[in-house]
Specification:
Distance between the termini of chain A: 82 Å
CATH architecture of chain B: Orthogonal Bundle
Oligomer: heterodimer
Helix content of chain A: 25-40%
Radius of gyration of chain B: 19 Å
Helix content of chain B: 55-70%
Number of helices of chain A: 3
Number of domains of chain A: 2
Strand content of chain B: under 5%
CATH topology of chain B: Arp2/3 complex 21 kDa subunit ARPC3
Distance between the termini of chain B: 35 Å
Strand order of the largest sheet of chain A: 1-2-5-4-3-12
Strand content of chain A: 25-35%
CATH superfamily of the largest domain in chain A: Rod shape-determining protein MreC, domain 1
Structural class of chain B: mainly alpha
Largest interface: A-B, 62 and 58 residues
Chain lengths: ~290, ~190
């Protein structure tokens, strides 16, 4: 059917494309080199087109969202009523506790530190693209360096932590979500203060794991998990203290394990994010932990 | 497909449009946990009508664009998509299919190849030792089903867009090859003789 020359040329073409792909993968893992700059340049060029396409396709997205929401509306309604009742009680308790804490802080002369939201200056951004993989790892937003966005700034959505900025170009920024396999966030359960590290279960964006929580610390279902803003002499968390992350949905107590594994449902709906807020640092804000 | 500037321009614009729509719109349309994925279908469509080498080249270019704009590991999508383009193109060259509904199984096969192979490659390169939920497989199945549903119209659209650049349109050639049914003697008209 084909002569030898055609067959040889066809095979050579395939080998060339596979080899080129392998070279690209190797370059990506060896620091990127010019690839990173090319990626940022291409994103800058294409981001206005993506913004336009995103806006044009919004009605279709909304229609699909409405269909999905209609199925879940009844369950959500009941769940939200229960949650509001619980939060009213919690609010009353917290207000009393806060007043006590303020008085005690004044008594011992403890310096007040600015965590979230005090130390931050939120910049609202629209999601213009999201990673097409099943791993829910990243999104791109339409604000960039010119809007004060810098790498490692925290990103929140719907009142909960969504991720951090990993790459910035002039007019857009790449956000790696907390569901990315490389993500690890130091966090604590309030009110009891059990500390751990939030890690994702890849492919399951509505269930995160708070790992390395000491067994002795009793964690109850429904507790709120916030970023702990951990800092020591050598390392410091990039997330300021107090950003809400999610609510405890389940606690796994394994007899063999040293730590308990706490499952939490994130406040941010990481499958469907249209808008986010990038927490740029407020000028003059004091961040960190209280000085001794 | 003749490697003319017009052909490069046509396929280039087709890929750019598909990648932008995928990243900015379709990728965010969640349905039963899955989403439509245009990329393997567009690559499969070009390979189906143009052959293995243009299919592999289109797959490589589509993957390059996708990795570039989605800020993923460069080369991962290119590797998988050039193999898919080559495979679909070889299928067309070897079997020379003519059935009008064939884009449905071909599109489904391209989607299966993409979600499995890209899932495996990105797992090895990016995910590593993190725990993976079983929901990933449900999402893959839903994505394949959704892609199968849109394969036929999408292949038709791809054919329409690249047709001026095709050296030989396989569907036209197969149509011409069929013996005219009205050519037999009067009594045998309509019968395969």
């Amino acid at each position: 059917m084909f002569d030898r020359k055609t067959i040889r040329r066809r095979r050579a073409a395939l080998v060339a494309f596979v080899a080129a792909s392998m070279v690209l993968i190797t370059m990506s893992f060896s620091g990127g080199g010019p690839l990173g700059a090319i990626q940022r340049g291409a994103q800058d060029v294409v981001s206005p087109i993506e913004t336009g396409a995103n806006r044009a396709l919004k009605p279709v997205r909304d229609l699909f969202g409405w269909l999905g929401d209609s199925f879940d509306a009844k369950d959500d309604n009941e769940q939200l009523r229960d949650e509001v009742a619980g939060l009213r009680k919690e609010l009353a308790t917290r207000q009393t506790a806060r007043r006590d804490a303020d008085q005690l802080r004044g008594l011992v002369g403890l310096r007040r530190t600015d965590g979230f939201p005090g130390a931050t200056n939120p910049v609202a951004a629209r999601v213009i693209a999201r990673s097409p993989t099943v791993w829910y790892s990243s999104i791109r937003v339409d604000k960039g360096r010119s809007d004060g966005i810098r790498p490692d700034q925290p990103v929140i959505a719907a009142g909960g932590l969504a991720g951090k900025v990993t790459q910035v170009s002039g007019g857009s920024a790449q956000v790696t979500l907390i569901t990315d396999s490389s993500s690890a966030v130091s966090a604590q359960v309030v009110p009891n203060g059990a500390n751990g590290i939030i890690k994702p279960e890849v492919g399951k964006p509505d269930d995160l794991l708070l790992d390395f929580v000491q067994k002795g610390r009793r964690v109850r279902r429904g507790g709120t998990v916030v970023t702990s803003g951990f800092a020591s002499d050598e390392v410091k968390s990039i997330f300021p203290r107090g950003i809400p992350v999610g609510r405890v949905s389940r606690v796994d107590l394994d007899e063999v394990e040293l730590y308990q594994r706490v499952h939490l449902k994130p406040f941010a709906d990481l499958r469907r994010i249209d808008f986010v807020q990038v927490l740029t640092k407020r000028p003059g804000a004091r961040a960190g932990v209280p000085s001794p | 497909m003749s490697p003319t500037p017009g052909a490069f321009l046509r396929v280039g614009l087709l890929l750019l449009g598909a990648v932008v729509i995928q990243l900015s719109g379709l990728g965010q349309l969640r349905f039963l946990g899955g989403h439509f994925d245009l990329i393997p279908l567009v690559v499969g469509g070009v390979a189906y009508y143009a052959g293995s080498v243009p299919g592999a080249a289109t797959g490589f270019a589509a993957g390059f664009l996708l990795d570039l704009l989605a800020a993923q590991t460069m080369g991962a999508s290119s590797l998988v998509l050039c193999a898919i383009g080559y495979g679909v193109g070889r299928f067309r060259e070897l079997r020379d299919p003519s059935h009008g509904l064939l884009p449905i199984p071909v599109g489904a096969a391209a989607a299966v190849g993409w979600v499995l192979a890209f899932g495996a490659v990105s797992f090895m390169l990016d995910v590593g030792t993190a725990s993976v939920s079983g929901l990933v497989f449900r999402e893959m199945v839903v994505t394949v089903v959704l892609d199968t549903l849109i394969a036929l119209p999408l292949f038709g659209l791809v054919r329409r867009l690249i047709r001026p650049s095709l050296a030989v349109d396989p569907l036209e050639r197969n149509r011409r090859r069929q013996s005219p049914r009205e050519s037999g003697p009067l009594g045998l008209r309509g019968m395969e003789v």
